[in-house]
Amino acid sequence: MKGAVGLEHCSGQPPGWVGRAAGVGQGTAPRHGPATAPGLRSGELEGIRGAGTWKSERVIASRQGPHLRLAGGGILNFCANNYLGLSSHPEVIRAGVWTLEQFGAGLSSVRFICGTQSIHKDLEEKISRFHQREDAILYASCFDANAGIFEALLTPEDAVLSDELNHASIIDGIRLCKANKYRYRHMDMQDLEAKLQDAQKHRLRLVATDGAFSMDGDIAPLKEICRLAEKYEALVFIDECHATGFLGPNGRGTDELLGVMDKVTIVNSTLGKALGGAAGGYTTGPKPLIDLLRQRSRPYLFSNSLPPAVVGCASKALDLLMESNAIAQSMAAKTQRFRSKMTAAGFTISGQDHPICPVMLGDARLAAVMADDMLSRGIYVIGFSYPVVPKGKARIRVQISAVHSDEDIDRCVEAFTEVGRKHGALP
Ligand code: PLP
Question: What does the DSSP 8-state code read for residue 52?
Fold first, then answer.
């Protein structure tokens, strides 16, 4: 495998750091608390293992990037949401370090007590400028932004209409609110229209959809959704976690791509994927709505302010994207290279020009053995099967980043072709 680029910095460790992954110091400290958890249903963990849905975590010993160092050696990484490669961008890191030094490790407070610094206000202003909205509010994650919005905005007299494949955090956020709930079939506009008709009896209607769906790399039909929303006087909410920074001519997201920036009322997104990849999320939209969230949204009111270093990294990532869309264009070119070479090799890639490139295989076992075989060739991709995706639609999800080189992409395609032939996915 090619040398692991940019790993020189990983040799040093901060003072007092103990290499857990290497097993240093393990098992020596006394452990307290009961050895069993009384509330745990018997056989629950075995059940998860038996169902084949146990999620294990691979320990990375380097920065996030296209080339990772693991305990067993280096690998070429195709499964991070680091679409623009900003997680380890030198200017982003420098901005994080500078902000850490100037503003400290953290606020030890929620925003409304003594947790708002000038950098939080500046980042909120930058986010609203980026999305061309009136105002923005920061959260510790987009999961929190989604958990906090529906309950704050909707009453029992209102209705929320949600795509059945929306992200878990939207589903949980909707569960927390008292509005009437409608779930429409994935991107099915006839079904949405029927549900909007039924929801006319309610005071307010809110249509909620992912902008880009992370399992299929498909993009919500926002033009049509906005047309229906206008017809039935509904608001439109989009989750742009897999779109912000790179979809659309200026990377503003799905609403820019589909020409409906003036029709989508609320945008939620993350700082934890394309925008530097640290953590954090936000809502951006009309000022009165953001004002209401500051008063009512529980994950905002009752959780700590974003750490300054995280704010500094995200702020720099937005500066870079507002200066130029060259990084997003580079990612689009790499995506195109991967999709066209894989299609020419005989694979079916789901989705539309999105850096999430699901290699459709159908059979769950095939997806698992091929993903394992890819890893044994130094290429890290993840297989997904039921219940994460529908039965018979198992796939290996590949995610392209601007920092993949053309050679990285070609190596991945070659490995897929060899592994596909070996396991009968290709003739
Ligand atoms: N929404 C979508 C569509 C996501 O994919 C994710 C992350 O996986 C989230 C929300 C949550 O984002 P965060 O990691 O900022 O909590």
Answer: T
Partners of 357 in beta bridges: 398
Q: What's the pTM?
A: 0.93
CA distance 327 to 333: 10
Spatial CB neighbours of 388, under 8 Å, sequence gap ≥ 6: 53, 215
Q: What is the pLDDT of residue 13?
A: 55
In angstroms, rounded to a whole number, what is the distance separating the alpha carbons of residues 427 and 425?
Answer: 7
Going from the Cα of 270 to the center of ligand 1, the distance in angstroms, rounded, reads 6
Alpha carbon separation from 360 to 82, 344, 363, 397 (Å, rounded): 22, 14, 9, 8
d(CA 247, CA 245): 6
Ligand 1: centre distance to CA 142 (Å): 5
Ligand 1 pocket, residue 142 CB under 6 Å:
yes
For 46, counting Cβ atoms within 10 Å of its Cβ (0-12 exposed, 13-18 middle, 19+ buried), the class is exposed
Q: 3-class SS at 45? A: helix
Q: Closest ligand 1 atom to the C-alpha of 272? A: 15
Q: Which residues of the chain have pLDDT under 70?
A: 1-28, 38
